[in-house]
């Protein structure tokens, strides 16, 4: 169990640029979640995958955001035409899909949009 | 519409004493409750959980109490240690919503030596 891995840890970009983050969940975990956390707030749900299927998207996820999980393994989160309001910590979490259970979180990607 | 509320942004406690962190929720569909601990620049780490069929769960120095009628839960840490200083998030889940977690805003716990 190597834990949930996220890359990069930090990303600084200019407004209008596209960015992509990667998440490698704990192997054999079939549930994968993306969350966003801003200063002074708790993590907010963005989207959820069961294996390769994206089953739920929050209304926080505008059409500039897209997430994929090809083959049900790693996942990517892409933000197009970044805005300063996108600056946040983007967290990935996974779980094994056994009903109610804890989510294991990665260390996150801190995005700063200048 | 905040479904999980942590009304104390911060709490300061002396080493060795008890820390009590509180959490209220509004969604009666929540069936499972968790506490996470978070250090700066790291992801949340799981601490302890409780199912709605129980009213207490204990794990070493950490105990979570659930009062369903009041829609209230609390985390007790006894004895508190300086290494417990972190932000603590209360989270809730219900099986009808893909088991995703809804988080409160967190409480910053500072344990003074």
Portion of residues in beta strands of chain B equals over 45%
- Mean model confidence by pLDDT of chain B: 95
Which series of helices and strands of chain A comes N to C? EEEEEEEEEEE
What is the total tally of β strands of chain A? 11
Name the shape of chain A in a single word: globular
- Give the number of helices of chain B: 0
First-last Cα distance of chain B: 38 Å
Computed over alpha carbons, the radius of gyration of chain B is: 13 Å
- By oligomeric state, this entry counts as heterodimer
Largest sheet of chain B: 6 strands, mixed
Total beta strands of chain B? 11
Largest sheet of chain A: 7 strands, mixed
Shape label of chain B: globular
Strand residue content of chain A? over 45%
Spans where pLDDT lies below 50 across 5 or more residues of chain A: none
Short description:
With 114 residues, chain A is mainly beta.
Structural commentary:
- The complex is a heterodimer of chains A (114) and B (113).
- Chain A is 0% helix and 49% strand.
- Chain A is an all-beta fold and 114 residues long.
- In chain A, the strands form 2 sheets. In chain A, strands 2, 4, 5, 6, 9, 10 and 11 form a 7-stranded mixed sheet that branches. In chain A, strands 1-3-8-7 form a 4-stranded antiparallel sheet, with no helix packed on it.
- In chain B, strands 2, 4, 5, 9, 10 and 11 form a 6-stranded mixed sheet that branches. In chain B, strands 1-3-8-7-6 form a 5-stranded antiparallel sheet, with no helix packed on it.
- Chain B has 113 residues and is mainly beta.
- Chain B contains no helices and 11 strands.
- At the A-B interface, strand 5, strand 9 and strand 10 of A face strand 4, strand 5, strand 9 and strand 10 of B.
């Amino acid at each position: 169990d190597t834990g949930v891995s996220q890359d990069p840890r930090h990303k600084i970009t200019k407004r209008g640029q596209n960015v992509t983050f990667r998440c490698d969940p704990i192997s054999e975990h079939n549930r994968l979640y993306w969350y966003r956390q801003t200063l002074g707030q708790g993590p907010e749900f963005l989207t959820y995958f069961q294996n390769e299927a994206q089953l739920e998207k929050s209304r926080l996820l505008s059409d500039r955001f897209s997430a994929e999980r090809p083959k049900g393994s790693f996942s990517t989160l892409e933000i197009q035409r970044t805005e300063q309001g996108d600056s946040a910590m983007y967290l990935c979490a996974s779980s094994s899909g056994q009903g109610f259970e804890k989510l294991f979180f990665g260390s996150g990607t801190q995005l700063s949009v200048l | 519409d905040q479904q999980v509320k942590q009304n104390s942004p911060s709490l300061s406690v002396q080493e060795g004493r008890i820390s009590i962190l509180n959490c209220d929720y509004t969604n009666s569909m929540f069936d499972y409750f968790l506490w996470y601990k978070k250090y700066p620049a790291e992801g949340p780490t799981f601490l302890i959980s409780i199912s709605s069929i129980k009213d207490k769960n204990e794990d070493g120095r950490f105990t979570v109490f659930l009062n369903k009628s009041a829609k209230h839960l609390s985390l007790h840490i006894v004895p508190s240690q300086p290494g417990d200083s972190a932000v603590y998030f209360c989270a809730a889940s219900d099986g009808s919503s893909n088991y995703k977690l809804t988080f409160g805003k967190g409480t910053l716990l500072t344990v003074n030596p």
